Amino acid sequence: MTKTALMFPGQASQYVGMGKELYEAFASVRALYELASDELGVDIAHLSFEGPAEKLKKTRFTQPAILLHALAVLTILRDSIPPFDFACGHSLGEYVALAVTKAMTFEDAIKAVVKRASFMEDACQQNPGTMAAIIGLDDKQVEEICKEASSVGVVVPANYNSRIQIAISGTLPAIEEAMKLAKERKAKRTILLEVGGAFHSPLMEPAQKGLEQYLNNLSLTDPIVPVVANVTGYGVTKSEELKQLLVKQITAPVKWAQTMSYLIDNDVKTVIEIGPGKVLSGLAKRDMKPEKIINLDTLNDINKYLSVEV
């Protein structure tokens, strides 16, 4: 029997205007944004819908904004959420995966991501760094390059996004050295990313400590289906393990390519991406080649899905 996985995007999937129609049409969605605005001390609805894009890009705002968009879609769907066998999210998207599997309440997910984003932005200021994408080299080649480039600073693989697309993270001199080495090894492309810091690297350790203290006081329950964790790339069904992995995730690489391999091995043939954009759908189309891909981003997407599926 073929299976279905829900996927939730992470940072860099945001766009100005995302979620606006959902907010205007549903009071239940407006309540989510109001809760987040109270936690943030900023009108996150206005920032999400009107921008400016530069401000929305800031980690402190981007993460809650993307989370809210995905939670808004789930709130509108309610009992019509597609039946699913696995849930997974890219970095902050993992919090939506925990919410949809009932390991965490929507309210707790919002509060936790507001804290996480704040801790991570503070860490970026304490330990400045950046990220780059390397396209066309495999895991081992990129890992070797990072090892060599570490002679001039911190640099590690941060996102194993696909078989041939890996993001690295660290200090600027080490990132530049790694990009040079990648070009020498015939990488198809190296791209310096416009990000606020060195995410999923040791430079994020200050954020890890803050998040661990916060999550220690948060109650999680076992998810109703396995959550495929970023840190491990396999399904997890125990709440305590999931909580520990959320902490590790801050400095550990996102094993998205491994996540997709796990889903293939477990007969997943339908992928449903919920939230802004189509980044994860694109990766799934290339690496997983599922029989069916559904994107639920706009109100039109939701209405189209409901008219066909329900």
Descriptive overview:
It is a single chain. With 310 residues, the chain is of the alpha/beta class. It contains 14 helices and ten strands. The strands form three sheets. A four-stranded parallel beta sheet has the order 2-1-9-10, sandwiched between helices. The longest helix has 21 residues. It is globular.
Secondary-structure map:
Elements: E1 3-8, H1 20-25, H2 27-40, H3 44-50, H4 53-56, H5 59-77, E2 86-89, H6 93-100, H7 106-126, E3 130-135, H8 139-149, E4 155-162, E5 165-170, H9 172-184, E6 189-193, H10 205-216, E7 227-228, E8 235-236, H11 239-249, H12 256-265, E9 268-274, H13 279-287, E10 292-296, H14 299-309
Parallel strand pairs: 1-2, 1-9, 9-10
Antiparallel strand pairs: 3-5, 3-6, 4-5, 7-8
Helix pairs in contact: 2-5, 2-7, 5-6, 5-7, 6-7, 7-10, 8-9, 10-11
